[in-house]
Amino acid sequence: MSTPSSSWRRRFAAPLAALLLAIALPLQAAEPVAPTWTATWTASPQPRWDGEFALPTNLPFQFWDQTVRQVARVSIGGERVRVLLSNRYGDRPLRIGAAHVALAGTGGTVVAGSDRTLTFGGAEEVVIPPGAPMLSDPVELDVAALSRVSVSLYLPEPTPPSTFHWDARQTAHVGAGDQTGAAAMKTDTTLTTRVFLSAILVETPAETRTVVAFGDSITDGNMASIDADTRWPDVLAGRLADRGIAVLNAGISGARVLGDRMGGNALARFDHDVLAQPGVDSVVVLMGINDIAWHGTPLAVDDAPVTAEALIAGYRQLIARARARGVRIVGATLTPFEGALDATPMRGYYDSDKERIRQQVNAWIRDGGEFDAVIDFDAILRDPSRPTRMRPAYDSGDHLHPGDAGYRAMAEAIDIGALLGD
User: N or C: which end of the chain has fewer CB within 10 A?
Assistant: First the structure.
């Protein structure tokens, strides 16, 4: 005969175990997600071009026993920081004698008490192999969203700036000796290019959504005010900061979908500059005007004309590769450019045949249904009385690039729901 206790066990032990398990499972699910590292700012690396190209590099021949202090405005914030350096286009090892990160002040200064020494595997000096990136160890530094960060690099030996970013729209300070830890640099010269600095990462409490702006000079922000952070990805970052969504600018002035010279072609750099970004959720593609317009100018003396069909085939490759990685891809229409660069040696950048190709490409972007969403930057910027040219209030004056007001109009017109797929 069963005792009362054994009978109770048979009747209630299994239901009680199930109840305890049901309670435990939600508790397990509620455990905090491990922190992760997210890029909050990037500058796409470019190879330095030779003296035969129509545009200057705006770089010195070399750095030698000098410090370069560069400033970047981040998108999202965090309490721990890492810095990514790049020797992607170097053909020799890159020696960094010292590196520091801090909150940026004005005129090459840093905020008192914010300076941190960067290490790489615990060492304050690092040698980066040719073609390689180098990620610093984490440092404790409370960086607010939309704040400016200073990165100082000491280059102790003759160092050609083989990996750079041409159009920084930000002043960098260069001074003699190791001034990486100086609160205020003694500046010998300034640059508006970037050298060896590829990304700034912050630690976030969970995987953070990231939007990448992938484009040419109109994304890179050519003709935007220097040191003002008025490019359209900057303004978009301001709109998304409260949501904790990072915005990365992967624009390169002069970039093309199918051609090289001022940076690699879009198909070549898409993986590195876009798909490799941690947490990338959406990418906006605004590129193609240089493919159409460089032909017949000093920028591409020997290049054949590019057809709408060739450009569309390039876009389709980007779409396929984004979808394969689960990344939302948004197409942006090519902006008006009648009269572009006519007052420069680049005369011939615009003509009626090139305009016809732009219209064909834009019609496919708008109506082809192949992008996940479309941003009609052409409609935002064009002059209603003459749609082939930019609205004067948005024109920087060269009839190709918007000014600050134009860039702001572009960013403010973006439908965030369509951008993110929410």
Answer: N
**The two three-digit tokens of residue 386, written as one number:** 């003459």
Q: What's the pTM? A: 0.90
Which CATH fold topology does 209-422 show? Answer: Rossmann fold (3.40.50)
| Torsions phi, psi for 271 (to 5 deg) | -65, -50
What are the sequence ranges of the domains in the chain?
34-55+62-204, 209-422
H or E stretch at 71: strand 66-73
370 and 382 Cβ atoms separated by less than 8 Å: no
Instruction: Look up tokens 């490409």; give the residue.
Output: 361
* Span 278-331, pLDDT tens digits: 999 999 999 999 999 999 999 988 889 999 999 999 999 999 999 999 999 999
The answer to whether the beta carbons of residues 315 and 257 sit under 8 Å apart is yes
Nearest to 368 by CA among 321, 319, 417, 415: 319
Token pair 């607010």: residue: 144
User: Which is it for strands 163-165 and 328-332: parallel, antiparallel or unpaired?
Assistant: unpaired
411 in Cβ contact with 235 (< 8 Å): yes
